[in-house]
Amino acid sequence: LTTDPWTVSVSGEAKKTGDFAFEDVIKGLTPEERIYRFRCVEAWSMVVPWMGIPLKRILEHSSRRVTPSMWCSRRCIRLKKWSGQRSFFSSIDWPYVEGLRMDEAYHPLSIMVTGLYGKELPNQNGAPWRLMVPWKYGFKSIKSIVSIHFSKRQPVNTWQALAAHEYGFYANVNPAVDHPRWSQASERRLPSSIFDPNRRPTLPFNGYAEEVADLYRGMDLRKFY
Amino acid sequence: MAALSARRLKVLLWVGLSAPLLWLLVLIGKELQQTNSGLGAEPSEALLHYLGEWSLIVLLAALAVSPLRRRLHWPALGQNRRLIGLFAFFYVTLHVLTYLGLYVQFQMTELLDDFVHRPYITAGIAAFVALFLMAMTSTQWLAQTAEAELATIAPTHVHSRSVSSHTSTLVEQRQLAGRSNLPVGAAVVIGRARPV
Questions:
Q1: A19 touches chain B (CB under 8 A)
Q2: Which terminal residue of chain B, N or C, has fewer Cβ atoms less than 10 Å from its own Cβ?
Q3: CA angle B11, B13, B19 (to 5 degrees)
Q4: B35–A191 CB contact, under 8 Å
Q5: Rounded to whole angstroms, how far apart are CA atoms B76 and B74?
Q6: How confident is the model over A168-180, as pLDDT tens digits?
Q7: pTM (2 d.p.)
């Protein structure tokens, strides 16, 4: 996969639409270090030092007037070299699609990651840029984004399309709502050693409840998982 | 291939079936020297899956013995069936102990929660109980007692047995195999339902 040059297409209800060079989208914005807890829906977790730019600043920076309430980004197959994406064994309908509500996208904790451990973001972690919303399960934080679409309608994200009873649109980390096939009450914190899986209780909103719980006030989180 | 004697086959089976365990010990050794070097980023999960996969492989090998023995006319294979079956039980036991120790961490409430809510755990525990009973009743002494019991029910069988003397004959092996085929079949149907 070649990440340079990288084009990002912006479409939908935005002030400025079209194809943009990735460098132009983040021009003038300096990545800052954010050390976040990362919780996978499959019950492992890790503390990761990302380098990133608040998504809010990117959206404001490109001076897009975003009146609708939804924001969605899309990742797609760039090259055939990137095997495993469209293989016989893949059950996913590529490109991978993820979405956020606009208030989630504008939340100060939501960042677009461009670096990891003080270095440029490696391909396997979603180069050249990826989303990071630390209070949601990892699959929400879509990698290698090529398309941003603004819409009034809530998008159907890839995992929801694949198994709606297992993966929802919100995917907020919630120890009280189990995945049908395993418990979400605890997690295995990496790195772990062979005789100690390093299990610890999972926190509501992955420990960011104070910052984000207000976004979901009055919502039944069992229904909107 | 059929020329291989039961004794030689036994040696080969011991070597072959211990190999996964020896390799695992090597990986654990690396792991103890440096974390995440032998078994990857999540060593306890890798351990669980490694043992689970080998349990399934050896269990399927044990189940393949009877049909293969008949097809290949290879009685030596049948005489080593119990060895393969016990190796399968050995790997299954390590797999279950890993689950109980590292995942459930010997908490009864956790185990009950898993047992009730996760079908693959329910099936896995049922399969383990079935295998446990088979392993416990697989000793020479029990097998002979069972045969004696059978003999009292069917006296003609006693006669044929006394004729064939104390050495185990192919006929007896077949009877033994026939006796235990059903529970093994049940165990593997259940066992197959769980992801490894």
A1: no
A2: N
A3: 105
A4: yes
A5: 5
A6: 999 999 999 999 8
A7: 0.74
